Amino acid sequence: MEWLWWRDGVLYQIYPRSFMDASGDGVGDLEGIRRRLDHLAWLGVDGIWISPCFPSPMADFGYDVADYRDIDPLFGSLEDFDRLVRDAHAHGIRVVLDLVPNHSSDRHPWFLESRADPASPKRDWYVWRDPKPGGAPPNNWISIFGGPAWEWDEPTGQYFLHSFLKEQPDLNWRNPELVREMHGVLRFWFERGVDGFRIDVIQRIAKDPALRDNPEIADSPGGYGGQRHVHDENHPDVHGMLRGLRAVADEYPERMLVGEVYLRDPAEVAKYYGQGDQLHLAFNFALLFTPWDAQRFGAEIQAWDSLVPAEGWPVHVLSNHDAPRHASRWDDPEHGEARARLAAMLLLTLRGTPFLYYGEEIGMRNVEIPRERLQDPLAHTLHPSVARDPERTPMQWDASAGSGFTRAPPWLPLARDAALRNVERQRAERSSLLWLYRDLIALRRRTPALQRGSFRRLESPDGVLAYERRAGASVARIALNFTPEAQRVELGAEPLAGGLRSAYGTPLPAAPEPVELAPSEGIVLVVAASR
Ligand code: GLC
């Protein structure tokens, strides 16, 4: 099998507001990303996914798109974008954009037209309904961001649907014109050299055509969690819609679609792979919610591994722009740093494409944001405690005043430890977390078992997660000690060709039998026959 970038490589998510500010306004931009490509190439990543950078009023920081075929001036221009793609490709880095198909901005010209004139052909590009007798909304659906999912439009006497903010009206994927237009959007970017799309909340684009009420959960506190979401998402028609998007991607060589399928039931998520005719990759978010426990990790990973269909390929992620950073989630006063190293070893040795989130390679933590500086709309519509700003703070490049991110006041505060925890400093320390990421990525790349191999759990003491990866003659065995005590594991007796310890310093054993693991330490061993 030939090397395929999205299956065999390592991908990296960039939140463009926070990666690098080249223009000097305190907000990251495309030219900033371009100037930092050296870091990504040095690290060894094969592709970047850039969260939305299209024109947007930024009600949800770009997830409210006002033009699907342009770049927001805050981030640069189409010329900047073309330059970024060209230079990324020259570094061997693919570029993935973020498609937001479920909703547009309420300032998108389509919605302005749709709202202004019920007779316009654009009316049906969104979901408009009459009130119930008495004026109530058409059904009981609730917005994920709080409050009813329906907004009343006085001048035209109808409600429109919004799964998220009222500034994000839902598009109607049952309208063939809208679908044709969205397919055109994909082609527009593919023609410009874009290698793929991450698709936002793809499970939402198909809803019950009859818009029936969701069943309420008895004795629940109400709100979004108080309903079973059987009618407002994941309608079976979603799979046909996805096949349509995939057919467009397949018009071009080596293009990729990775979906955010935000459903609780992993068996439902797995259906989004189709028969190799829907998503190439579907995010498994289980590890975003898994507590630091070897058994729980093992169970989640194994469950997902067995659900992904044979023609599909898993994908793993520990952090993203919607969830607290994993170095914070699994932090511990004594073992926090070691755990971040162990997590890196896990992510980069699993069967499935790893997605890193910018800054995790230096162990960035959530940053506490003073209330008056919170930006995320969730802080206002739901509660300050659910704001996603803490995981979206500027990248920590060096020890200078703006941490090498900006010359201006940054849009979100920098971490207080930015002068100590940054790329420059960790590059200068051979034993840093940053180097561990780089070494793991390089090991994965040169070891077929790690890149492509099967996954099988191995017997191990309680509190240790051990597994084998195997591709033909290439074999790697991994043991991760989740406990604060030393552990001893058996990983076979064959001679070794190499490997890595998550804590640098102790030499690798000559033969792997038995292996001593320090508290919160992990090891990857590559068996000699595999060379
Ligand atoms: C997805 C995005 C999130 C956004 C939401 C609405 O979940 O990841 O950031 O707020 O969709 O577009």
How would you sum up this structure, described in words?
- With 531 residues, this protein is of the alpha/beta class.
- The protein folds into three domains: 5-102 and 176-439, Glycosidases (TIM Barrel, Alpha-Beta Barrel), CATH 3.20.20.80; 109-161, Oligo-1,6-glucosidase, domain 2 (Alpha-Beta Complex); 453-527, Sandwich (Immunoglobulin-like), CATH 2.60.40.1180.
- The protein has helices spanning 5-8, 30-35, 37-43, 78-90, 109-116, 176-191, 238-249, 266-270, 294-307, 326-329, 336-347, 377-381, 423-427, 433-446, 448-452; strands at 11-14, 47-50, 94-99, 128-129, 150-153, 158-161, 196-199, 256-259, 281-282, 315-317, 353-357, 454-457, 464-471, 474-481, 487-489, 496-501, 515-517, 522-527.
- It has an eight-stranded parallel β-sheet with strand order 9-8-7-3-2-1-11-10. A five-stranded antiparallel β-sheet has the order 12-13-14-18-16.
- Helix 11 (336-347) packs parallel to helix 14.
- The longest helix is centred in the middle third of the chain and has 16 residues, at 176-191.
- It binds alpha-D-glucopyranose.
